[in-house]
DNA sequence: ACAAGGAGTTACAAAAAGGTGACTGCCGAC
DNA sequence: GTCGGCAGTCACCTTTTTGTAACTCCTTGT
């Protein structure tokens, strides 16, 4: 990835690769108003499978955009996902992307 | 697409769908400094096939981000691709995406 | 011991995206 | 009329991404 010369010509592609995926932007959208655990995300995203959600959360974690912490509640384990400080830097970008997307939708 | 309720929750996804594709951002990058014809784009993007380039140019045209016009030069037909006025509105978004991508790359 | 709730994982299947090589259509020069 | 340069298209195949269903692990309460 870093060794790919074609990538150099287009830094935007690096950003896109980090946030594209059928559910990633939606997850990132949901996490704006605070941490959510796996089951909440799953319930909020009708149609997502545990497998794919887990994969995409893993990729967002690998990119350090989100982080997770475990929490015991009532003897049951919850894994909470939230933006990392680094990941929060992505929010303005997502906002601008969203603004353009919305305008594009009803053009 | 417009009828998909899940889309509503995440306008950023609409934008991403419009610009994601292995070559779209790179094409958009090249078109910043003026129109280019098919063969030029192809030569500037080592590894792209005529089929896929043609497909992606078609999608960018369908989204009205770029436009094309034909031109005769030396008895040979060239098809020039360039940003549309509407598409130029995407440039600041790509810039911000690129800035984040670059920072992300060497984090 | 076992049930219940949460968080995944695994093997497999389907769908979408991208790639290949050969082919077509157009136009003007020879 | 045939050749060369440009802009694609077509049928087919490979790779990547997403989806499905069944299953595991962990912890506390009964």
Describe it for me?
Two copies of one chain form a homodimer. Chain A is an alpha+beta fold. The first copy, chain A, has one domain: Orthogonal Bundle (Arc Repressor Mutant, subunit A), CATH 1.10.10. Helices cover 55% and strands 17% of the residues of chain A. The first copy, chain A, contains seven helices and three strands, in the order αααβααββαα. Chain A has a three-stranded antiparallel beta sheet. Chain A is globular. The N and C termini of chain A lie far apart (35 Å). The A-B interface holds A 2, 6, 9-16, 18-20, 25-26, 28-29, 45-47, 63-64, 86, 89-90, 92-94, 96-105, 107 and B 2, 6, 9-16, 18-20, 25-26, 28-29, 45-47, 63-64, 86, 89-90, 92-94, 96-105, 107. The first copy, chain A, binds a DNA duplex (30 and 30 nucleotides) through residues 21-23, 37-39, 47-55, 70, 72, 74-79.
